[in-house]
Amino acid sequence: MRLKLPKLFLIIFLFTGLWSLVTINLHAQTTSALQKASDDYAFQYSKYVEADNSSQNALAIYNSFKTTTAKEDAFQKTQAKISQTDTLYIAYLRLTNEVGNNFDWQNQIGQKANVTKSLSDEMTFFQNNQQGLNGIQTLEQLPDFAKNLSDHIKNITNPLISKTQATYSITQAQVALDNLQTTANDLQVYATQKLQGTESATFFANWNSEIAAIIKNAQTQIDLAKQQANTNGVADSNLINITQNTKNTQDILNKAIPLFNEVANLK
Amino acid sequence: MIDENSTNLPHQQEKNTTPGIQSAPFPVKQPAPDINDLLNPNQKSKTEFSKFKFKVITIFILFFVMLGIFVSLSIVSQKTATQNPPPLPVDIQSPSPAPQEASPESKIIQEINKFKNLTDAINSNSDKLTPPKIDLTITLK
After folding, report:
1. For the whole model, what pTM was predicted?
2. Using alpha carbons only, how large is chain B's radius of gyration in Å?
């Protein structure tokens, strides 16, 4: 009887611990790498906004009072803001890479290696830039340093990410189109066993002409997107057009689903 | 008063009674003390303590065994879920009851689902890649 209460507490404690560990384990498994990268990007962006506000305030105070203390403070906070910009872009590039890890590249896998290498090289640039920033000692040096970084982002990083996005969209569209062809072939084999004689021949003649039209239209849209992507660099306007082309491809491919279902439902 | 269950004879009972002290109405048979208790009075509490220790250790072992089982099960179920994601619903009635081996019908449905998923995936993550709005202009007066 003396041991009953401690035993009860012990059992409750153990089961609570067990439950917590299982819950933590499940949570860790369900949080994907993409979600982690996305969360990190959002977090780094919020830190950038804080650093930007601090820098703006410190610069305003320095520009008003011109004291050495204010200058030192403005230098520290502006340097921190530039450093955080580097960190933010590293997180952004990592997220961009992780998006590419989350879809099936199938026979387009060769392109993935190129994308990964380009993004990795760009991450190295930001890491090196951060190290270079540590060598700067005066406030007067920071405007030029920040301008160089801004120009790099505008001329190299952003076009690279736009091109990567374009590659993702086009690859996903092409993979879906390739899969449509395979699925159509398999469905035809399946339906041949269900339909007999002339009924089969006329049904497939009509069905195939519908599928062929879908393939042709979808491929046209993908080719247009590829043309846009092959121009020198992918500007924002190009990316909008590419996204529109791949969206059109998606709409066209969706028209195949009722046709597939029709064959799958044959009795 | 004679206790019928007693092994002592009546005259022996009389002899055992000390004069001036009221004796018990019947002889009380005391349980024989444990020789270990007499030799070492702490031995009993030590035995109880070791029993308690044994119980605690057993519970801990059980806890870790259960933990291992839970973790293994959760990992296995997670892997199974990743390898065999549940098919998205399509406008087709799936065969009922579900066959043990994949029938031609279910294979076809899986293929259609795969195509549908690939089509849905086009541009699905583009919203995640919105570039950050930054301003690196530094104005010194």
Report:
1. 0.67
2. 42
> Band of the pLDDT at A48, cuts 50, 70, 90?
very high
Distance from A3 to chain B by nearest Cα, in Å? Answer: 8
Distance CA B55, CA B64 (A): 14
Among A43-57, A161-175, B90-104, B122-136, the range of highest mean pLDDT: A43-57
Residue B61's CB: how many other CB atoms inside 10 A?
10
Please name the helix (run of DSSP H) or strand (run of DSSP E) that holds residue A82, with its range, or none: helix A68-100
* CA dist., res. B105 & res. B91, Å (int): 14
pLDDT tens-digit readout, A186-225? 998 888 877 766 677 788 888 999 999 999 999 999 999 9
For residues A239 and A162, the answer to whether their CB atoms sit within 8 Å is yes
ipTM score assigned to the predicted complex: 0.79
Q: Residue window 36-95, chain B: list those with CB within 8 Å of chain A.
A: 52, 55-56, 59-60, 63, 66-67, 70-71, 74-75, 78, 90-92
- pLDDT bin (cut points 50, 70, 90) of residue B49 is confident
The DSSP code for A200 is H
What separation in angstroms does the CA of B70 have from each of A19, A24, B62, B74, B79?
A: 9, 12, 12, 6, 14
Q: Is residue A194 exposed (0-12), middle (13-18) or buried (19+ Cβ within 10 Å)? A: middle
